[in-house]
Amino acid sequence: MAGPGITIRGISDVNAILSQIAPREGINLMRATVHDIALQLAKSAKDKAPDDPSTGPPDLKSSIKAKRTRGTRQRVGSDVVVASSAYYWRFLEYGDGPDNVEHAMFLNALQEMRPEMDRVYLEAFAKKLIARLKRARNKA
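^ that's the sequence the OP posted. Answer follows.
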């Protein structure tokens, strides 16, 4: 699933690759992979979010973003956040909005990705690993 000469079949292969490269590079690679997955979730939630034509540019769809969170040495993180200008997202998510319909854009995006999480994770990891190896090859 990765570049020429590299085969990644599962999470155990990812762990083996991370243990072989330098710890700092491994953490940076994991940080980029986790953020890539958060970007995919944010994009899916944006697609599922209801569109209100009466609102201007800072509407709900443009307020959904992925943001890196500060982690520790053993933990990396990235969250999908909504800007404070779209405070009403909670009402729409849980069905307390003016239309009393539960839109559940974040829950639906997560449930859609969950069965394929290993595939999504491996694809994101392989993409980031190939880019890092190409950059290292170009530096040398």
